[in-house]
Specification:
Structural class: mainly beta
Strand content: over 45%
Distance between the termini: 22 Å
Largest sheet: 5 strands, antiparallel
Number of helices: 1
CATH class of the domain at 176-259: Mainly Beta
Order of helices and strands: EHEEEEEEEEEEEEEEEEEEEEEEEEEEEE
Radius of gyration: 18 Å
């Protein structure tokens, strides 16, 4: 595996020990087969890690970057300090979204062609269970904050499947609009927000009752979801507009719309909640949004077909 420096050979030589101000945003680029590394303090792209053949889903934990490779059907584990691939684990055909539990002990991967979620131990990547779900072609599998539940969305479904993590099985399905995509939980775990692409809506779900409590009209082809750490706002990307909308949790109303790059997809927010990073698939860029003012601060060039963002 190679590491390409964006700035100079000095960055390449110092990757393992260079102290960026951070936190760092990691962006998998499907067509370039790279992960772009952005320093969120400066919003400068610092380096590209060349890895796999089609990196898509991403999660970052202590010391490791976890990626799904859509071409090889594998989980890739990369040392975040050196940029070196340390392990590859076969998952099945067309794995996509990946989630890391809050305690850092479990990984969940949606494997589209297997109609399953693969549960693995972290950081080793050892398979613990392969859980079948009802929704066809699952795209995202997201842990609730307490790690008790996995919510799973599928491209060919009108429901979110609920998996009991301890029992290692699906226990419910919650009806939503056609083609559910991104999922995000409020920090207290009381609600989940699900973007349904073909319905043009975001669905707010009461986790305790497993019922939709609000339907929020979004833009065209809503897909990515990111929840602010304060639990007061939820952001949704609209793939065809292209824009990002901010939703007020108290009222479930859209309070702002921000124009971004073409085909905005998956997103992440800095730990302090100050900035939102949006992967723009067709623009080959990441848009940076100030979450207080709802203003776009920058567009950062990354690789081709960026899929999403993970920040640590």
């Amino acid at each position: 595996m190679r590491l390409i420096s964006v700035l100079s050979a000095a960055v390449l030589a110092a990757f393992g020990g260079l102290a960026w101000a951070g936190p760092l945003a990691y962006v998998p680029n499907e067509k370039s087969a790279t992960v772009s590394v952005i320093d969120t303090a400066t919003d400068q792209r610092q380096a590209d890690i060349v890895v796999g053949q089609r990196p898509r889903g991403i999660a970052v934990g202590p010391g490791n970057i976890y990626l799904t490779d859509g071409k090889t059907g594998s989980l890739l584990i990369v040392d975040s300090a050196t940029g070196q691939l340390t392990k590859s684990v076969r998952l099945g055909d067309s794995p996509e979204g990946i989630s890391l539990s809050a305690d850092g002990k479990l990984l969940a991967v949606a494997v589209e062609d297997d109609n399953a979620v693969v549960l693995l131990g972290a950081p080793q990547g050892n398979e613990l269970a392969r859980i079948k779900v009802l929704g066809k072609n699952p795209e995202h599998a997201v842990f609730s904050p307490d790690g008790r539940w996995l919510y799973v969305s599928a491209e060919e479904a009108e429901q979110v499947d609920v998996v009991d993590v301890a029992a290692r099985q699906q226990v419910a399905s919650i009806p939503v609009g056609k083609r559910p995509r991104g999922i995000g939980f409020l920090p207290d775990g009381s609600r989940a927000y699900v973007a349904s692409e073909m319905a043009g809506k975001v669905y707010a779900i009461d986790v305790a009752t497993r019922r939709v409590m609000a339907e929020i009209t979004a833009g065209q082809y809503p897909n990515g979801i990111a929840v602010h750490p304060d639990g007061q706002r939820v952001f949704v990307s609209n793939g065809r507009d292209p824009s990002v909308m901010a939703i007020d949790v108290a009222s479930n109303a859209v309070v702002a719309t921000i124009e971004v790059g073409k085909r905005p997809w998956n997103m992440a927010i800095t730990p302090d909640g100050s900035k939102l990073y949006v992967a723009n698939g067709r623009s080959g860029s990441v848009s940076v949004i100030d979450t207080a003012s709802y203003k776009k601060l920058a567009d950062i060039t990354v690789g081709e077909l960026p899929w999403g963002v993970s920040i640590r």
